[in-house]
Predict the structure.
Amino acid sequence: MTGGLWQLVLAVVVFLASHSLTNRRVFRSRAEAALGGSRGFTIAYSLLSLLLLGWMIAAYRDAPTVLVWGQQPWMRWVPVLVMPVASILAVAGLTTPNPFSIGPGGRGFDPARPGILRLTRHPVLWAAALWAGAHIVPNGDVAALTLFLPLVVLALAGPRMLDRKRRRTLGFEDWSRLAAIPRDPVAMLREMGWKRLLGGLLLYAALLHLHEPVIGASPWP
């Protein structure tokens, strides 16, 4: 189901719709019951997300090129410089207990050592926003805008929606107490540890290595 812009639009719509379903209590409760609990649901949903992401990438690769703006040499530097930050945010966010947002969940969360949450309660969403936004700059064509712009909007809208949801589920008093995380860059780096920083850089290196064979274009300026 690739080859035209409409196939890319369809892939993006299905991807976004699959994510919106997780915010519907009835759907999620029934899905968890059918899949053996929240763990089974998380595994199944992660696999589905990967399949849909692969569909979007394939549809993007096969979509026709309709330029909106021409690429300038400096534009190619934007994703190269932004993606290390996005990669570190993603790895730290996915490996840090987080009762507020996307990640491994709140089990084991220590308000005294929140790590990356000293920067933002939603590191994975900010990683997605940086990834998608950085790739818009050098890819000024309709297909790229169709792929990346909705993801930027979703990632930027996500923190507010999740905060509202968590305030409702945790209760305003508990949410306010847990969310009162002081900003301290030095403590953040110490609590994150070198393994998460290294993991983010390794993810960045892997993305650079796989970019051309998977996407079909070199990431280097």
Q: What stands out?
A: The mean pLDDT is 89. Helices lie at 5-21, 25-34, 38-62, 77-95, 123-136, 142-170, 172-179, 185-215. The longest helix spans residues 185-215.
